[in-house]
Amino acid sequence: MKSGSWNGRSPAERFGRAAHYDERASVQAAMAVVVAQQLAMRTSDNGLRILDLGAGTGLVTRTVAEFTRVQYARAVDASAPMLAHCSEAFLRANIPHTTVVADLDSDDLEAALGEDLFDVVAIAFVVPWLKAPERVLARAFKRVHPAGTMMVTTLGPETFAPWRAIAREHGASGELPFETRSLDGWETFFASIGACCEARSMRVPSPGSTALACLQSLRAIGATAVRRGTPTMPPRALAAALRDVDARGSDPGDAFAYDVQLLSVTAARLHK
Question: Does some domain include residue 187?
Fold first, then answer.
């Protein structure tokens, strides 16, 4: 579960593209709806208090607000431009909120979060970028109300698997979206912090009429990171691999399909 270094660039540097993020973030939008529908069944008359970690533009919280009342949201992200966009969007949606610019791996995160408890702690597509995911998730779970839920979405190991295979047929290893890690086996970790988790997996194709369009969408939100030291994919090999995807006749989005994993984490005592 350890995270690598991605070309020496922080998540804030890579994902600080607020102006175009929402229009390109198709899988994030699709999963935000799944999370919102699940939370809508658990809401109270007072509405939900949400802590959105790695909030970006606040897409998850805004989607939840379309399904149920959000009493208050605290959005935390390392990117100030993303949070500025988030705050503006929350104001338009009439969501009471505060924003906190903070690196989730920082030792100062707990001080930034304060002592408040939340009905929902949302962590969407952040895990692969964390240096110490277990530490961050354990700290986040401390902010969950005793009857609340932590929702974690991330990309599984089969994400873009067909594209990876085709690219490697052309002798390339660079220009592949970041290697992902399965959440399988995390039940043991969550049990160690007094939590239980329910896991779901689903497959979400990328939008795009051609392989190039799919890849450009990924690039637009900074999602084509490769490990430090991985060779850059030569342009000729990249072009050949993209042509190969299109020539195989299936929907190009299937080659760039996301393997999405969703964890719903609650206090273990609620299951006794």
Answer: yes
